[in-house]
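Hi F.,

I've been meaning to write this up properly since the lab meeting, where we talked about keeping a consistent format for the predictions we share between groups. The idea is simple: the sequence comes first, exactly as it goes in, then the structure tokens exactly as they come out, then a line or two of notes. No screenshots and no reformatting. I'm using this chain as the first example so we have something concrete to point to.
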Amino acid sequence: MSSSEPQREFGVVLFHSVHGALGAEKLLVGAAIPHKLIPVPRHISSNCGFCLRFQWCDRERVEALLSGSKLGVEGIVAL
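Output, unedited:
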């Protein structure tokens, strides 16, 4: 990352359903990855009203944890 690019602090995982968001929260708790279940920010559209916010430095761990799941992940976005 070049020094002119903004440093990302958080990311969010978007889901197709609340069920997926709650299932992913359970996985992140089990992996001891700090996170918070929050409403989807207004500038981001989603089929579900909730998303999981996490520290951007944990992005690779979050992606790896959710990659094999069938939780309906819509995407991962930097904030």
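Notes:
The beta strands are 10-15, 35-39, 50-55, 73-78.
The chain has one domain: 10-78.

If this format works for you, I'll send the rest the same way.

G.
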